Amino acid sequence: MNKDFTVKFWGVRGSYPTPGANTVNYGGNTACVEVNAGGRTIILDAGTGIIPLGRELVKRQNLELLLLFSHLHHDHTQGFPFFVPAYLPKAKLHIYGPGGTAETVKHVLEHNQSSDTFPISLRDMASNKDIQSLRESQVIVWEEDGVRVVESISNPSPEAVVIRIHKSHAHPGGVYHYRITYQGKSVVYATDTEGYVGMDRKLINFSRNADVLIHDAQYSDEHYYGSLAGFPSTQGYGHSTATMAGQVAASAETGQLILFHHDPSYADDWVAAQESAAKNIFPDSQAAFEGMEISLNPSPVSGRGAGVKEGVKYVTHG
Q: 90-104: b or e for each residue (b if 16 or more CB lie within 10 Å)?
């Protein structure tokens, strides 16, 4: 059986896509991360990065997919109407996310593709879709017999992918963070979150000893506090600075920190400066870029940008 555990970034920006000469190094697509765990594909958010991912998945004939929304703001759903697997009758999509009712995720996707806003409705997308809104207390388990949502799990099979949820209120409307565990290794996805005074202790506990922490780092400290010329203060907008992300990673003792959800107004050199700021607090920090891959396989560390934690390495392109 395929025991690979990898993470690949298809979209790393926040708010809106930013193609152009100033974003070539890190990319301009909005949030989308692919996690492959034992041959099972989990997609985190459906920003515009899901569009090229969808084309790649069709080439691979990998068509049972789990799509997890952190929340339902536009920059995390805007790529879904262009996600090719959703149009294929043989594709099976498990689409989960937060919501006040069991139908919230479905209603938002239907609204995004209503006749007033898009020419093709959600119903007209021919794939087999299992759409659910989840509670924070629930656990997603993907075993050999398929994907299921349970209230608790005590003894998962050795081959199970187990996904736990942390609901944060540090973003307008709330946001779900996910911890994906496979073969004893874990990735935490914590986008669209803002650091509290004294840090977010619940997120730190949720991320404790994760091999990889993907954390929102949209703003520089100067931007966040309103001391950057030409930019308003963004305190209270629901996004973190690289400093905040580094503090969480250091306190949670994670293996690696990946800075994510870069501000769309930041050119490549600004994002690089964010990486430097995080490294001052947590040395094993890197700013996410489109095409970057991380392997959590139990193999020797090697290659450019290798992390310090045994069995975890970067596989980078470009």
A: ebbbbbbbbbeeeeb
| Residues in CB range of 25: below 8 A, 6 or more apart | 268, 271, 272, 289, 318
Enclosing H/E stretch for 94: strand 92-97
Q: In sequence order, what are the beta bridge partners of 124? A: none
Listed in order, strand segments (DSSP E) in 38-125 are 40-44, 64-68, 92-97
User: Could you give the 3-state DSSP secondary structure of residue 96?
Assistant: strand
Q: Assess contact for 127 and 86: CB atoms under 8 A.
A: yes
Largest distance between two CA atoms of the chain: 56
Spatial neighbors of 282 by CB under 8 A, at least 6 apart, are 245, 246, 247, 249, 250, 257
The pTM of the full predicted model, rounded to 2 decimals, is: 0.93
Cβ burial, residue 151 (10 Å; 0-12/13-18/19+): exposed
Q: What are phi and psi of 179, to 5 degrees?
A: -115, 115
Task: Measure CA of the first residue to CA of the last residue in the chain; give whole Å.
Answer: 30
Partners of 150 in the β-ladder: 139
Q: What is the chain's Cα-based Rg?
A: 18
pLDDT per residue as tens, the chain (318 positions): 688 999 999 999 999 999 999 999 999 999 999 999 999 999 999 999 999 999 999 999 989 999 999 999 999 999 999 999 999 999 999 999 999 888 999 999 999 999 999 999 999 999 999 999 999 999 999 998 899 999 988 888 889 999 999 999 988 889 999 999 999 999 999 999 998 777 889 999 999 999 999 999 999 999 999 999 999 999 989 999 999 999 999 999 999 999 999 999 999 999 999 999 999 999 999 999 999 999 998 544 333 333 333 445 555 543
Cα–Cα distance for residue pair 286/288, rounded to 1 Å: 6
